[in-house]
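Form 12-C: Joint structure prediction
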Amino acid sequence: MKKLFTVFTIFVLCMSVLVGCSSSTSSSGDGKVIQLNFFHRWPTQPKKAFFEKAVKEFEKQHPNIKIKTEAVLNDSYKEKIRVVLGSSNPPDIFFSWSGEFAYNFARAGKALDLTDMIKEDKEWSDQIIQSQFIPFTLDGKTYGVPWSMDGKSFFYNKKIFKQLNLEEPKTWTEFMDDLQIIKDANITPIAFGSKAPWTISHYIGTLNQRLVPEDVIKIDYDPKNPEGDFSNPGYVEALKKFKELEPYFNKGVNAVDHEYARQLFKSGKAAICYMQYAEIGMVEPTLKDDLGVFKLPAIEGAKGDPNVITGAPEGIMISSKTKHPKEAMEFIKFLTSKEKGIQQVKEVNEYSATKGTLTDQNSSPLQQKAVDQIVNANRTALWLDTDLDINIVDAYLKGAQLMLDGKRTPEEVMKEVQKAAKEVKQSSAK
Amino acid sequence: MLHGKRKITPYLYLAPCLLFLLFFVYYPIVENIRYSFFDFSAFSPSKTFVGLQNFIDLLHDKVFYIALKNNILYAVISVVCQVFGGLILAAILEAPITRLLSGFFRTVFFLPVVISITVIALLFTFIYDPQIGILNNFLSLIGLEDWTRAWLGESETAIFAVIAVSQWQSIGYIMMLFIVAIQGIPKELYEAADIDGAGGIRKFLNITVPQVKEMIFVTTLITLTGAFTVFNEPYILTGGGPGNSSDVLGTLLYHSAFFEDKMGYASTIATVILILTLMISVIQMKLFRTGKDG
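Section 2 - Result
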């Protein structure tokens, strides 16, 4: 219980640092050796080792550059990066999700505009899949380089589908029928965990894209556009569709997290799980040929774009306060080179956003198919939780959690979202 | 000469500790109160003075009341379970009949106190697990299938499931404090009561309770302030969910500061927690009139 006090003290001390030391000196030393700080979100293996190795190799190639790495995991990263970027001594190079998460840094002037540097080195930048730059680009300026890309689909257990004589569902109605058949056979139809509620956002993000016209979404998601008020009936419809799935989830979704759901699916106890392509590498070794993938089935009469897949690149940005933008860019180029990209797919199961990095040696046919889907999709819809303003996301996720618990109706959730959106847009208009 | 020297030496010894306290405890508290009048985020280069607006917003925030209600629940249940339960446990363990085994039971009850709360919280996520958790399996085993539920995943039960973990963990600590207090009671009192023919319960009510009054005060203070500053258990077990149903002031503060990036608002919550805990201690000091022999 006393830990709160510690949290409280740390919080206040952080604040004092932010406010107190607005004029700090740089730590570049005597000019010979340059130190760059690199902040990423993978303190766990195998990615930790992958980056350690990359840093070592890079330092060998560039004896005048030293790279100091720091890493914290996922959710903590989201919190910590905001604080350190606001401080007077931010990391030179840092990892970022795309969309609103990255735009936020760009708007606050915390991220360096990389447009010119990308244009200068065409030989390198042309190797990167160009569409993946889009979610890092705001008002024509690019602020980040895509490092990995991902998409979301339903993974299913072919063995269970075969036993029950099921086919990959093409429409929502077929999908619901299949789910009922699986449930009747006493198998959990869909594995899901929403204790950490970002998993909800992935469902809703995709359903919104399907049920709400694209131009409406564009206005609504933009935190600065006061006209977008989330009043389109498609949003409520999306939540209703999500609620239709609820009887087919495992018991007590709010009490378990995504890792649990993945485990349930991996062990063959659940027929379907909504997962990221990057997770193929985690379940394929166990399920082998039984693993199949299908897109979220088409919803009859939906007004949105059926050919959108949800997914987003994750990338690397440079702080606007860095003293050594050139050297920092060198490191990013190194990380996004074709050679590193090939290793990346093989060693850490993340699809590199660099062209031609998927070979038969480092990936399975299913993984290659998945990446084709990402590259060929009409458009990728970003993860809802990094695409929207954090306060709107919060209203969405907390509301949806209660909806799964039977405490809120889809209409009530949307009312909360509309209220949050109104507040966000009002305060950004100031 | 010597006299003057002696006067300054004790203060010199106190100085380092005092400086640390000033810098790490009092300075943050004062700064925090100042921050609560400003509106700012970790990004914003400057802070805007908003006066009492943060406090007004807080009073209109529905989640604040949910959190406050949960904290009060925490406090009430903690006092009943830990202070009263702990006292009764201590009295039982110190009773002549159980003396032989008291060493063993003391260890059993105290063990959870020394385990890291993070470990305990993770352990209880397994216990509460809706499908593989032993709590639900146990309930179905004894024929209470209707009682099984996703303890941490349902709005009605989440906060109680969290509170239960805290009780399990902390009761041993409070019990230990009472054991120490009971051992300090002069034996003659009990002997005199024996001669008068008093039974066990009588002795407990008329000797043990009045004699450990001071300790009851201390433990109530510890549990009450603990209940209002609780953070780890709800944060790890439920993250405040589902929705906000198991949020407490601590998790609300954390969420506002590091998730929503409303630093000023978070400071306001911290200030409110400070005021609440201060009020509790003042009221209790008045009620128990410690220091003075009542």
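Section 3 - Comments
Chain B has one domain: 59-288. The two ends of chain B are 43 Å apart (CA to CA).
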